[in-house]
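Narrative summary of target 7.
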Amino acid sequence: MNRPVFRLLTGATFLMLMAGAAEAHVGIGDASGFSHGFLHPLGGLDHILAMVLVGLYAAQLGGRAVWLVPASFVCLMIAGGGLGVAGVSVPFIELGIGLSVVVLGAAVAFGFRIAPAAAMALVGFFAIFHGHAHGTEMPETAASLAYGAGFVAATALLHALGVAGGLVLGRQSTAGGQMLVRCAGGAASLAGVALITGIL
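Modeled conformation, tokenized:
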């Protein structure tokens, strides 16, 4: 397995195990905080698609982008989550989330080649919307740190799955694997349009 992919998977697993262990101690946090946070990104098609697409796009770009692009998303998602928890208003949250699926899906479908820094800025911009949604929808009974650890862990796992899938398919000797990745990006982009328009 490629080292960056292994690191992403290991990091996601480590984070989930550590957060789960912290919640197992009596009197530390809210037992529902981590689980609510972990399940939140998995509860919406828009979140799942965007986070897997970040991984697929990072794999397409290759090199340092394999880990820099997902890391940028996670960091700025945390910042967006902090804004949400603090009650700071960010306009067009749902539109931003929907557009993230459309734009990232199109980037994968057409194989847009941009510098890692530009890709980090692109996914980071959309991550703020996703993070804000996580923060504002946090249950009042959930412990904020545990909740945050949960949605970070789920996000990292979805990124890792996207990266792993993109690298495995991209390494196939025929063009079939790369075409499959591009078709997945196109389908996701169309799903994003459907989400924005309310069809899905």
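Residues 3-197 form one domain.
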